[in-house]
Design a protein that fits this description.
Shape: elongated
Largest sheet: 3 strands, mixed
Number of domains: 2
Oligomer: single chain
Number of strands: 3
Distance between the termini: 50 Å
Radius of gyration: 22 Å
Strand order of the largest sheet: 1-2-3
CATH superfamily of the largest domain: YefM-like domain
Order of helices and strands: EHEEHH
């Protein structure tokens, strides 16, 4: 990701916006990222995507269920080794 300062925005805004059409661009102030400019299509994908998904053991997809069970097995095996 390319980085520009807020001052750069005044001097080379066209370059910054052109770059942001193809890749995220960070705008910094005093060395810290304050804003990120991304293409509208990428933004729409981000806001349309659910941020968290919850399942019960009964309705979890097989891969999620398998991962959960593996994690539980590892925890139980670890507990067995300590007693």
């Amino acid at each position: 990701m390319k980085r520009y300062t807020f001052s750069d925005m005044n001097r080379v805004s066209g370059e910054i916006l052109e770059t942001a059409l193809f890749e995220p661009v960070a705008l910094t102030k005093r060395g810290k990222e304050k804003l990120v400019i991304i293409p509208a299509t990428q933004y729409r994908k981000l806001v349309a995507r659910p941020h968290a998904v919850a399942y019960t053991l009964q309705n979890a997809p097989d891969d999620v269920h398998g991962e959960l069970m593996s994690g539980l097995d590892a925890i139980l095996a670890d507990d067995d080794g300590r007693t």
